[in-house]
Design brief:
Oligomer: single chain
Number of strands: 0
Largest sheet: none
Order of helices and strands: HHHHHHHHHHH
Distance between the termini: 37 Å
Number of domains: 1
Structural class: mainly alpha
């Protein structure tokens, strides 16, 4: 059993995130919402975290580490995870992300703008949000209304995807690559201080961003080990 888990860890973790996303969302869509209860807002944050997990899994698939050795399965999982996150298209994300790694924090980097946070985010969003996505989200919203209360759909399906987008941008793009002229490393990336709990909660260890650019073949759940190695090596 241990050998099976070690061999297929990426697939198992990806499936766990998918099952958690579906299960929690299904439960929350049926939940009696109370705006006076702090549990409502905690539930929004939990769904936001799971949405972020979907995108991080799709991202790992772009590096071939979800199902290494099985390219078709790797791409399939990446496509599903990206699609569940507001109908992102994996085939469109893939080349842009590899351009980011190849030309990080330059004019050829599709993720990079620099300067003001909001202008940078707007530029970032334009790269990845399409009219087709918006139309599909709108159609799905109206379809879901046939079965679930509007407030549940907005709170637990729509709002978390927006919050997760900000979360991914802030911790995975803006913080690591702002002030690129101050970065004294070849990846033009900074990194969070070592705090594994916060690194996981904030963005599945992607605040350890220098570590990711230095070893893009490491899945998200191994980045903390690389952080430990670098810290101990100093």
């Amino acid at each position: 059993m241990k050998q099976v888990f070690q061999k297929h860890t990426g697939i198992i973790i990806a499936c766990a995130i998918l099952v958690a996303w579906f299960s929690v969302l299904w439960f929350l869509l049926h939940w009696n919402v109370s705006f006076k209860s702090p549990l409502t807002y905690l539930a929004v944050l939990v769904m936001t975290h799971l949405y972020t997990g979907l995108f991080i899994t799709a991202h790992d698939a772009m590096h071939g580490v979800v199902a290494p050795g099985n390219k078709n399965l790797n791409t399939f999982i990446g496509t599903i995870c990206a699609g569940l996150f507001a109908y992102n298209y994996y085939g469109r994300l893939y080349p842009k992300h590899h351009l980011h790694h190849k030309h990080v924090a330059t004019d050829q980097d599709p993720d990079y703008r620099g300067g003001n946070f909001f202008l940078w985010f707007f530029s970032f969003a334009k790269q990845y949000i399409t009219v087709v996505q918006v139309l599909l989200m709108a159609a799905t919203y109206h379809l879901l209304q046939l079965w679930f209360p509007i407030e549940n759909i907005i709170l637990f399906w729509m709002v978390p995807s927006v919050l997760a987008t900000f979360q991914l941008f802030y911790f995975g793009t803006y913080l690591p690559h702002r002030g690129e002229h101050d970065h004294d490393n070849r990846h033009r990336s900074s990194t969070q201080n070592r705090n594994h709990l916060w690194a996981f909660i904030s963005c599945y260890f992607f605040g350890y961003h220098y570590e990711h650019h230095d070893k893009p073949y490491l899945p998200w759940w191994k980045l903390y080990q690389e952080k430990d190695r670098l810290v101990k090596g100093r």
